Amino acid sequence: MEIRRDVFQAIADPTRRAILSLIALQAMTPNALAEHFDTSRQAVSKHIKILTECQLVKQEQSGREIYYHFNPKKMKEVADWLAPFTKMWEDRFSRLDNVLNNLKKKK
Amino acid sequence: MTTPNHTTIVAEKGKQEFFITREFDAPREMVFKAFSEPDLLMQWLGPDNMEMEIEKFDNRSGGSYRFIHTDCNGSGMKFAFNGAIHEVAAPERVIRTFEFEGLPERGHVSLEFLTMEVLPGNRTLLKIQSVFKSVEDRDGLINSGMEGGLNAGFRKLDALFLKGI
């Protein structure tokens, strides 16, 4: 039976989110990607297979090498492009608000 | 109208830069201090699910820095960042470079301009401008912010599921 692959299932796993974070910055070869993880090459390939099946990752041949590309179009099904980046900064700044409040109390 | 402490991010399509602005309810010297002292910086800069280590932070004109974030959620992945500090003009301006070391090749460096302006009522306006080598580099960095946002998305989904949708 064919198992349904969707974006939410793909990003539920921390290693797959880490893979996406890396290739979102720049396309990578399987070797370059595997170097970032303690797990085996096979384990990383399995994650890539799942990400490819739900179209979050595209594979492109360039000379002898295969490069994994991030597919941001698919990501828009999950979140608006800038929204997560904004959220990251909002979280960071609300922690900074707390740091500043603590500094004010010490005075 | 936006709320006073609203974070604004502008990243126009096809441009090599983005702008971040945010107001803080604290005097400028204090905001500058929170950006300059390692023990304070560690309390807010790293993402919630990451452990932050400051390997080096020589915060002066001609200085440099290197920060390492380690994922605590199973993958154990390390993200390291480094840069050279061009100018520290306390308490109003810092100009420095930024490079993510996780990329397969070196050289994808951006230039950051941080300015802090005094506002009435002991408030401070922070402005960050980041300029990248290419549009692709800028878009790549913005895409890398998705993880935190996605986790927040999951929490919202969880809340929906609890309500039985």
How would you characterize this protein structure?
The complex is a heterodimer of chains A (107) and B (165). The model of chain A has no long low-confidence stretch (mean pLDDT 83). Chain A folds into two domains: 1-75, Orthogonal Bundle (Arc Repressor Mutant, subunit A); 79-107. Chain A has helices at residues 7-11, 14-25, 30-34, 41-53, 72-75, 83-106; strands at residues 57-62, 65-70. Chain A has 107 residues and is mainly alpha-helical. Chain B has 165 residues and is of the alpha+beta class. Helices cover 24% and strands 41% of the residues of chain B. An eight-stranded antiparallel beta sheet of chain B has the order 1-2-8-7-6-5-4-3, with helices on one face. In chain B, strand 1 and strand 2 form a beta hairpin. The longest helix of chain B is centred in the last third of the chain and has 17 residues, at 146-162. Residues 146-165 of chain B have low confidence and may be disordered. Chains A and B meet through helix 2 and helix 6 of A and strand 2, helix 1, helix 3 and helix 4 of B.
